[in-house]
Amino acid sequence: MVAGGGGVDEGLRRRGCTYRRDDFLPEESFQSWGNYVNALRQTPGRFVDRVLTRSADSTELVEMKARSHNEMKKTLNWWDLIWFGLGAVIGAGIFVLTGLEAKNHAGPAVVLSYVVSGVSALLSVFCYTEFAVEIPVAGGSFAYLRVELGDFVAFIAAGNILLEYVIGGAAVARSWTSYFTTLCNRSDTNDFRIVAHDLPEDYRFLDPIAVVVIIGICCLAVLSTKGSSRLNYIASIVHVIVIVFIIIAGLTKADTKNYVDFAPFGPRGVFQASAVLFFAYVGFDAVSTMAEETKNPARDIPIGLVGSMVITTVVYCLLAVTLCLMQPYGSIDEQAPFSVAFEAVGMGWAKYVVAAGALKGMTSVLLVGAVGQARYLTHIARTHMVPPWFAQVDSKTGTPVNATVTMLAATAVIAFFTSLDVLANLLSISTLFIFSLVAMALLVRRYYVSGVTTQANRNKFVACLFIIISSSIATSIYWSRTDKWTAYVVTAPLWFLGTLGIWLLVPQARNPKLWGVPLVPWLPSLSIAINIFLLGSIDHASFIRFGVWTLIILVYYFIFGLHASYDTAKDSEAKRLEGGTGNELRKVEASGVATRDSGLGSGNGSYASVTPAN
Questions:
Q1: pLDDT the model gives residue 594
Q2: Structure confidence at residue 84 (pLDDT)
Q3: pLDDT over 70, % of the chain
Q4: Three-state SS for 593?
Q5: Does 501 score more than 90 pLDDT?
Q6: Residue 425 contacts residue 539 (beta carbons within 8 Å)
Q7: C-alpha span between 87 and 362 (Å, rounded)
Q8: Rounded Cα gap, residues 100 and 368, in angstroms
Q9: Residue 11: CB partners within 8 Å, gap ≥ 6?
Q10: Element (H, E) at 284
Q11: How confident is the model at residue 422 (pLDDT cuts 50, 70, 90)?
Q12: For residue 461, is pLDDT > 90?
């Protein structure tokens, strides 16, 4: 361990899920009860330090990676990333939630719901892509937020990122069981589940098949990233063939009368469905975590991320149109809509093709999600916000075995108990929250660099960003409470003026070296507005669950995570001052990676390679 005794050579010899005491609490604060009590007394000061501290690009690229002992293997190119993107996204969302939302909230206008969600997702993809090219590490949005918004915000996001992956994987695994039941010609999608009558309705259908599927995915994910990529190719190709079949065969049975009542639930239904259907786009952020294993991030990541998202959005819209043309929206089955729709139009044999394709698609989603979530946890553990045992990379496979097994074990437990609708709403909240933070972080990255941005420009930027966020929140709250439009006459112009203020009054302090989001600040600002707006369509119970989870991770943070990450940061800072970062850090700086003079331990570092924009 870097911060807890034992050298890198010892780390190289260790394999699999072995562990020592220092793998979990190696920091000074946990070496004795006296140290821990003293650390708790210093909680307020340490918390302020972590709130104000921002990491540096070079810290994420060099120091954090070194804490895994072994390098992840660079085996992926843009072709791999496109297929990973398609495999990560096209799965349970389109094959299950389309029917659920078309029947209950949007009707045939569910296609518009997919357009709204797709635009929101695409804007987020742009933001992720710039970060992934500039900071190609396994931490994804966690690393990006550490650099721009600080340790504490990054930790809150990290907790929700892990929640997003666990409940997302659980939802897909349960959907896998539903389509497998259809493939076995069972009429009730709960036939292979165990009913526990003593449990609440949303948790009583126990799903052992979902657990078995997750165990199989775990074995594949720990063996090889490239091997997972090849399997994903095969599954995704089969999946694409099935999707083409659904669209062509389904449209031959189209009845335009089903589109007469296009939006039976009105605009509210369309946006309410959009918030839930955002679940169908979750997964592309997993591709950004593979930047550390990409051969040429500057070329491969933009093509892989943006390309896969555009293809996905088009496919979703075509599938939604096809489903609603085949059946009246009120007759759509909520659990296996496409299979039942083909049976309803006299093509019962086709439901087996659809079910098989859906299973292939969901298998890809589970596999790519397993790869992505483990890399998130690995990078979080590199900061010691969670035990560094999770950061270890196996020397032979080049994969984070400990993180993969742990995340999928948690996914299996949730999948065993929890119903799909509970999971989908909670997942959408976490995802929209994180995507909003990443868009804010991109604006901060472009317009604020300590030592470069003047105090006057900083104040103008903060004021405009506050207007953008507050007007977006006001719009979302108003939307959630009434169908009237009066307040939008105020909130929409305020958002526009806030964005215009940044564009006209604040010069960019940093320009991307390799690839940048176009139309800054407009696209990131629009991403913030849409994501926050969609949050207003999520049900109240899901916000309560989200609040409970946030409270749980905050308790953990103040008891363990804060003190572990504080000790690690201070130890790293001391080594840096003594020249302990070594030649690797100097090589990164010399190659043009922007670094901050004091990235850890203070919030006043500046980018060495940045000049003010005119």
A1: 40
A2: 76
A3: 83
A4: coil
A5: yes
A6: yes
A7: 8
A8: 24
A9: 1, 69, 70, 392
A10: helix 284-288
A11: low
A12: yes
Q: 443 pLDDT band (50/70/90 cuts)? A: very high
The residue among 532, 537, 543 whose CA lies nearest residue 471 is: 532
- For residue 253 the two structure tokens come to 């049975």
Question: Domains in the chain, ordered, with CATH?
Answer: 57-538 (1.20.1740.10)
What Cα–Cα distance (Å) separates residue 565 from each residue in 143, 154, 381, 386, 572?
A: 14, 12, 9, 8, 10
Question: For the residues 327-349, what does the mean pLDDT come to?
Answer: 85
Tell me how many helices (H) and strands (E) the chain has. Answer: 26, 2
| Cα–Cα dist 316/335, whole Å | 17
Q: Name the one residue in this structure whose structure tokens are 């948690």.
A: 410
List 206's β-bridge partners, or say none: 194
Sign, CA torsion 479/485/489/490: negative
Strands 205-206 and 194-195: antiparallel
Q: Which of 127, 116, 122, 120 is nearest to 85 (CA)?
A: 122
Q: Are 590 and 493 in contact (CB under 8 A)?
A: no
- pTM of this structure: 0.77
DSSP string, 426-439: HHHHHHHHHHHHHH
Q: First CA to last CA across the chain, in angstroms?
A: 45
Cα(227)–Cα(580) distance, integer angstroms: 37
Round to whole Å and give the CA distance between 65 and 52.
Answer: 23
Encode pLDDT of 112-148 as tens digits: 999 998 888 899 889 988 988 888 876 678 888 888 8
The answer to whether residues 439 and 531 touch, using CB atoms and an 8 Å cutoff, is yes
How is residue 134 written in tokens? 């500039």
